[in-house]
Amino acid sequence: MPPLILASGSPRRAELLQQAGFDFTVHTSPAEERHDPTARPAELTLHNARLKAAAIATAHPDAFVIGADTLVYVGTEPLGKPRDLAEAATMLRQLSDRTHQVTTGVVVLQGNVALAELAITTRVTFLPLTDERIAAYHRLCPPLDKAGGYGIQTAPDLIIAHWQGSLSNVIGLPVEELSATLRSHGLETRQLTD
Question: Which residues belong to the active site?
Fold first, then answer.
């Protein structure tokens, strides 16, 4: 069975893949993400995921290499990772009392062959947020490594009204769809114990 590599330094993606029961190694991709506000969500996230996977797959041609990219969209405006706390707070103000989309593109490569390309979108609705609530949330959830400046898995009751679709997708990896794809290519999960 070919080895499985996650081409991401995201601890959340690694945790999701581990919880799904796959054995894998992590190689952080050096690829530079493209930022194109005119691109459609699926197109841009898949492009970036492909770049990340390809940067690792060239050195590991026999492995299954997973690349992923997550973006938050308010209307047609993409929100990536904030540069600082002020930008993170601005992002949450934009999301306040609105529904937005979280799209994750996932590409699985073996060498230069794409075994799978997935683009999954989840709709997330925020509660109305005050500046005080935003500051309190960011004290609990450091925002700088998270698209949109938030992590749905940390204190969601402070900011989230509800979501529709895959929760793991919002965290950074649509694990249900990815697991099915990996199993369809012969990768097995280990037996999980409590």
Answer: 69
Q: Are 123 and 163 in contact (CB under 8 A)?
A: yes
CA distance 127 to 105: 26
Would you tell me the crossing angle of helices 175-184 and 11-19 to the nearest 10 degrees?
60
Domains and CATH numbers, the chain: 4-184 (3.90.950.10)
Task: Please check whether residue 126 is in contact with residue 96, taking contact to mean a CB–CB distance below 8 angstroms.
Answer: yes
Query: From its phi and psi, is residue 39 left (phi > 0), alpha (psi between -120 and 50) or beta?
Result: beta
pLDDT in tens, 36-51: 888 899 999 999 999 9
The model's pTM: 0.89
Maximum CA pair distance of the chain? 52
Compute the distance between CA of residue 130 and CA of residue 133 in angstroms, rounded to an integer.
Answer: 5
Report whether 176 contacts 7 (CB < 8 A).
Answer: no
Percent over 70 (pLDDT), the chain: 98
